[in-house]
Write a structure and sequence with these properties.
alpha/beta; 6-stranded mixed β-sheet; 34% helix
Length: 294
C-alpha cells in the first residue's frame, strides 16, 4: 500500500446560522486518507461540503472537531510560523481564476511573489528564468509574462493559477472545481495540463468537482453527501484508462494521459510541432501539444 500523506480523522465543521443554538453541519464527521502520488477525486453535488472539506484539509478553515495530519504532523498543533513553512508543501487551485489573481499585477509579478516569500535568496534574474520555464509547462508563451489577467481567456487565466500552485514544488495540490467556469473543451485542456504536471512532478493531486466524468480520471474517488463520506472507491487501471481515453479523445496532440483514443483522434487532424521537454523548478514537465484555446 502507498504511504499516507494526509490523514483526516473525524473532521467536522459547523457554521452558526444566526439563530440561537442552530448550526449548519457543512462537514459532519468525515474520515479518509490521501496517499502519496495518487490522484484523488472528491465528488458530490453542490452544497454537499466537498469544498469546505478541502479548505479544512489545507487548514484554511479551523475545524469544529477532528484532526488533519499532513506528512505526520498534526496541523492544528503547528505555530503560525510553522504553518507558513508548511504552506509551500500544500497548494490550492481555485475555481474562479479571475477572482484569485490580482488584476493589478502581471503574470510575472503574480508568480514572482511565492518565490520572494519561500526563496528570498533568489535574485530577480533567477526568478524570471524559473517563471519562464513554469509558464511554458502550462502552455503559455514567453510574451504572456508581461500581461495582466484581464488580457487572457478563462482557460489561460486558469493556467496562470496552475503555474502559481506549482511554484513552491508542493507535495499536494487541491483543485477546487478548477474547471467550473470553463466551457467543456477548455475544461478538458486545463484538466489534462494539471494531470500532466502532477504526474511529471510526482505531486499528489486532489480534484474537487461535481462532475463525475472528471472525477473518473482519478485513481480513487471519494463521494461526499450531506457532509459525510458515502463511498470511497479505488479504480482499477483498466477502468481508469478507459475513462481518460474517452475524456481526452477529442483533444488534438499526442496526449500521453489521453491514451490511444486521443492518439487516433489526433492522427486525423494536423497538430503543431512539439517543443520537447522542459524543466520547471526541481521537477520535469513535458510540454505536449494541447489544442489551441478558442
Amino acid at each position: 500500500m502507498s504511504e499516507v500523506l494526509v490523514d483526516v480523522k473525524n473532521l467536522k465543521k459547523y457554521f452558526p446560522t444566526g439563530e440561537k443554538g442552530k448550526t449548519v453541519k457543512a462537514v459532519d464527521d468525515i474520515s479518509f486518507q490521501i496517499y502519496k502520488g495518487e490522484t484523488l477525486g472528491v465528488v458530490g453535488e453542490s452544497g454537499c461540503g466537498k469544498s469546505t472539506t478541502g479548505r479544512l484539509v489545507l487548514h484554511l478553515l479551523e475545524p469544529t472537531e477532528g484532526t488533519v495530519t499532513f506528512d505526520g504532523q498534526d496541523l492544528s498543533r503547528l505555530k503560525k510560523s510553522e504553518m507558513r513553512t508548511m504552506r509551500k508543501r500544500m497548494q490550492i487551485i481555485f475555481q474562479d481564476p479571475y477572482a484569485s489573481l490580482d488584476p493589478r499585477k502581471t503574470v510575472f509579478q503574480i508568480l514572482e511573489e511565492p518565490y520572494r516569500i519561500h526563496h528570498p535568496e533568489m535574485s530577480r534574474e533567477e526568478i524570471y528564468a524559473q517563471v519562464e520555464k513554469l509558464i511554458a509547462c502550462v502552455g503559455l508563451r514567453p510574451e504572456h509574462i508581461t500581461r495582466y489577467p484581464h488580457e487572457f481567456s478563462g482557460g489561460q487565466r486558469q493556467r496562470v493559477g496552475i503555474a502559481r500552485a506549482f511554484v513552491s514544488s508542493p507535495k499536494v495540490i487541491f483543485a477546487d472545481e478548477p474547471t467550473g467556469n470553463l466551457d467543456s473543451r477548455t475544461s478538458k485542456q486545463v484538466l489534462y495540463r494539471m494531470l500532466e504536471l502532477s504526474k511529471n512532478n510526482h505531486v499528489t493531486f486532489v480534484m474537487v468537482t461535481h462532475e463525475p466524468e472528471l472525477a473518473e480520471c482519478a485513481d480513487r474517488i471519494v463521494t461526499i453527501l450531506d457532509g459525510k463520506v458515502c463511498s470511497n472507491v479505488v479504480q482499477d487501471e483498466e477502468t481508469k484508462k478507459k475513462n481518460r481515453d474517452a475524456l481526452f479523445a477529442d483533444l488534438e496532440g499526442d496526449l500521453d494521459i489521453g491514451g490511444e483514443a486521443a492518439k487516433e483522434q489526433s492522427a486525423k487532424k494536423p497538430s503543431p510541432k512539439g517543443e520537447g521537454a522542459r524543466r520547471a523548478d526541481e521537477g520535469q514537465c513535458s510540454r505536449s501539444n494541447p489544442a489551441k484555446e478558442e
